[in-house]
């Protein structure tokens, strides 16, 4: 005899003492699945037969059962469970965790139960106890289904107990083995089992059409509708489809609450000006890993909200019929031929103001779908970003992009260099990228420039703060764009540029003064005096040769340290643009970097006093001579006092599978790294320690911030509302709060 049990269930064994419940549980279930009342009495009272401990024992049993049910695990309660009030607590527990309660009744003769108890030395109660259990059981049998048990198995006699076989079955909603691809289509409109259904909204016409069909066809339609489920869990749990949406705690569960939410959603208890219930915004709180696709509440556009999407775009009300292709995440819409039914609430009544920003857009844990992969933002990261954004950032209406961090190459292991171009070239070759472009790395501060044709705009740092105290440079930037002929050529009234602004001290004056200059001044005052004192001691015959040599080396390093940071300070303000991020007409992710630099060259030509050129060299990573030329070029740059270079895929955005390759690898020169790691970093012992630096997190961070930036620009140029753009901008700033070694 097969006993079917859902793979997410609370199994309640019911039977008189001595009916064999514990033996049955041991035979058919794993020890970890069975919660025995006797065992819990032993836990709380050191005596499994101490009936005075039953209240505490069941309290502990229910607690553990709740934890297991929350995790979605089959849980078996091994107790007599012949009292209705005891079973009611277990049914309530199952409902609280949205799993199905299942009853397995062992209905054995009273004589068998009495005989078994008599053979157990630890059971000294009389036959009257078994008789009372049997009486309660007989009174309960006919009403177990009404008590809420969704499946009921009654085993009458020992032979049925012996023949029983437990069969674990997935719930009907569990279609995790179906991996797709799927086309998920939005509401057409209607739902399987509505509340207070009236013959309206076109239902009358449908019924009339069905009336003309054969009884067999109508029966097939009825069976089809009856077979529909409140929600589906697909593709290994990665996709959930429900009519009105579903929070994560309900995924794959079964209860009246789950079904109600899946079919009708939830409301705030309020009504709007049209007299309709205000829907509870469950999607803004959703943080689950599964994609949830739903409908029920018409919306003008299908938009991603925390890995959920409402596909009901109101086709019946004259909107669109929308579908999502899974796993591609491609959204396809076709307009309605006409307004089939006038809605009580206008379709666009709750269209959000495009420039409005709300805390709920960015706070809490979020999963941002970029089109280049998902990026997760933790709640604590979002909180840190909110502090910076709300206190220091420029007007959010002009804050469209934050540049990503950049990773250094794998550590160089030879000689006294920590970073070397050979590792960057090899890294890209390993990623399948042959053509790279080496760009001079300017020693300044990263800045994003939003230039408008009318001379307005903004210049901000990579954390969104205003770069300059005034906007005096913006008209001059606009004039240069005009002189270069870019407004008309790119068909735009604004340009977003990624740049470096020199000199370094324009933005980093306080850092230089408080950190680098302080170290340089201290070393300059202490080390020469130490060398002088040690030299005098050596002249008197004191053996301090090793210490004197080390101190002289440190003094020389201190001189080199001061020369390194001073070389990047002073001079007029210059802007070195190296990438056109976007215009009103397009983004330029896939436009080769040489085009971007050619645009920069035209700006330099238009105003050479304001704009600085960026030197560049193309390298074939699979050609030894080309790689050697790239190394020589870097050596020449850094020997002349340059910071280093950035190696980028020449084609710009390149995908490797579902993720882009690294957008750039910075290779810094040895003297610049002296500023970063300290005057003595090239000493053998220090280099050995620094070569153990971990780059994995930095590389991951650079890639995640890069795709967020791309997504924000894509949304901007597509004309999506500001809050959608800011979701990406905010996420970049949130990721920057991660504790990563700032020297990398």
Automatic annotation (TrEMBL):
Superkingdom to which the source organism belongs: Bacteria
InterPro entries from the UniProt entry: Metallo-depent_PP-like, P-loop_NTPase, PNKP_bac, PNKP_ligase_dom
Record-linked Pfam families: AAA_33, PNKP_ligase
Domain Polynucleotide kinase-phosphatase ligase: 384-739
Gene3D superfamilies: 3.60.21.10, DNA ligase/mRNA capping enzyme, P-loop containing nucleotide triphosphate hydrolases
PANTHER family (alphabetical): PTHR12435
NCBIfam families for the chain: bacter_Pnkp
Protein's recorded name: Polynucleotide kinase-phosphatase ligase domain-containing protein
Organism encoding this protein: Actinokineospora fastidiosa
